[in-house]
Amino acid sequence: HADNLPGGDNVIVDFEDGIAWVRFNRPEKRNAMSVGLAEEMNEIFDALEVDDRCGVIVLTGIGDAWSAGMDLKDFFRATDGLSDVHRHRAYRSTRAWQWRTLMHYAKPTIAMVNGWCFGGAFTPLICCDLAVTDEKAVFGLSEINWGVIPGGVVSKAISTLMGDREAMYYVMTGEKFTGARAKELGLVNEAVPAEQLVERTRELAKILLEKNPTVLRQARMAYKFARYMDWEQAAEYLTAKMDQLAFVDPEKGKQEGLKQFLDEKSFRPGHGNYTR
Ligand code: ACO
Fold first, then answer.
1. Which of 23, 107, 196, 245 is the most exposed place for a label (fewest CB within 10 A)?
2. Which regions of 189-264 does DSSP assign to beta strands (E)?
3. DSSP designation for 154
4. pTM, entire model
């Protein structure tokens, strides 16, 4: 675990040239997510958001699992005996990092799915901005297989990326599918051979690190909010967001980009970034 970060043993964070590798660290439990893991994730994501060592986050797992979903013992059975209020606090703490924090996080996030990905693990997978998987990783909405529904916010999350027919098929059958199939379903950007997974993810992270971080943040937020608005609201919101960007961007990227393209003719936006 890198210096000066909160947390315990359930999650390990390492920094590498602007990339924060955040790793589930319960390989002996296939990285199943307990209440304790949620508490650590909440602290870690809070800290990384304002840590200059982190420009982009890669969320991945140690061992042969990305995450086998919620820990059936330390999340479900452990909370079953609690009062309603205490149980809901535990659920809320899990939803906090898996959905609320990741969905609107200040820094870009990539899920790097290195193995098993079941049930509750679909929420952080989907709430990360981008996802790359081992083509042979195994995914499944296994809830039906052990007598529950895709809860938390899993059913909602899958409906944002999967088509209804496919989502319903996997919700109802609990059938497993591969990383290659996850790509076809729109759950990940890319499915690559295992030996290329880390390098391809690193490459993608580096592309993001070259961008103006303020513009990148605003572009991600704009997309994530605009998709739920009607056209009129989206037009109004995006125009305001564009104006806001000019105000909050310390690099004044737009002015610089226009100058380099129109006046200096030193770059073409169609081919790549302006020089920062
Ligand atoms: N919750 C609690 N413990 C788990 C979980 C889980 N989700 N997944 C694995 N473990 C534990 C096992 O109980 C076992 O513990 P033990 O060593 O104390 O006996 C250990 O992790 C290793 O697991 P195995 O099952 O022995 O590993 P194997 O490699 O054979 O299988 C697999 C891996 C397929 C992922 C299997 O563990 C599995 O089916 N896990 C459950 C997957 C699942 O359906 N998750 C819940 C989704 S629904 C939801 O999240 C709401």
1. 196
2. 190-192
3. H
4. 0.97
Residue 45 has a pLDDT of 98
The reported pLDDT for the residue numbered 247 is: 96
- Ligand 1 near 129 CB (within 6 A): no
Q: Amino acid letter at 93? A: S
Please tell me if the CB atom of residue 142 comes closer than 6 angstroms to any atom of ligand 1: yes
Assess contact for 130 and 204: CB atoms under 8 A: yes
Q: How many CA atoms lie within 13 A of 123 on its CB side?
A: 22
pLDDT at 207 over 90: yes
d(CA 124, CA 41): 11
Q: Give Cβ neighbours of residue 97 (< 8 Å, ≥ 6 apart).
A: 38, 41, 42, 45, 124
Six-digit token string for 275: 């020089």
Q: Which atom of ligand 1 is nearest to the CA of 65?
A: 35
Query: 21 by DSSP, 3-state: which?
Result: strand
Euclidean distance between CA atoms 27 and 91, whole angstroms: 22
Please name which of 180, 189, 185 lies closest in space to residue 170, comparing C-alpha atoms. Answer: 185
Which candidate, 14, 141, 129, places its Cα nearest to that of 68?
141
Residue 270 burial (C-beta neighbours within 10 Å; 0-12, 13-18, 19+): exposed
The residue type at 273 = N
> Which residue puts its alpha carbon closest to atom 46 of ligand 1?
69
- The per-residue pLDDT for 96 is 98
Q: How confident is the model at residue 33 (pLDDT cuts 50, 70, 90)?
A: very high
